[in-house]
Write a structure and sequence with these properties.
The chain has about 140 residues and is an all-alpha fold. Helix content is about 60%, strand content about 0%.
């Protein structure tokens, strides 16, 4: 083997035997890696991966703990989408502020209401506020 080949082989061996150590570069874009599999190989891997995406399973087995942790973007569930729509509808309806004005006028005597009806208006204001808080909590939002 020539001198330059020996030098290249020694350099290759030095890097080939090093464990993988990812460099921290948060702005670096991930580069795709593809591999051709037979239908049987893919089926086998998908079965082994279980509920995990195949790419995550492969990354974990190829890189082990040295692999970078991925940020998972989760689409909101249908329930959360409905709750968000309800919160938006409640906010657009002006129901809370309107009920609050009615309660304020009733307390001042500008709107004649019986004590029972006045109590019901105040209770409705409280329940509307409670619905808003419950929706915000269910959506993991800050008030």
């Amino acid at each position: 083997m020539s001198g330059s080949m020996t030098r290249y082989k020694a350099e290759f061996d030095r890097y080939a035997n090093k464990p993988f150590e990812p460099k921290s570069n948060p702005g670096a874009k991930a580069k795709p890696f593809s591999i051709r599999l037979t239908a049987e190989e893919r089926t086998y891997l998908e079965r082994k991966a279980g509920k995990k995406p195949l790419s995550q399973y492969a990354r974990e087995h190829l890189l082990g703990s040295a692999g970078a942790k991925r940020k998972t973007s989760q689409r909101p569930s249908a329930d959360k989408e409905i709750l968000a729509q309800l919160l938006g509808t409640l906010g657009q309806s002006q129901l809370g502020p309107s009920m609050d004005r009615i309660a304020g006028l009733a307390e001042k005597g500008a709107l004649p209401l019986s004590p029972e009806l006045s109590q019901e208006v105040c209770q409705a204001c409280f329940e509307i506020a409670a619905m808003r808080v419950a929706l915000i909590k269910a959506l993991d939002l800050k008030a």
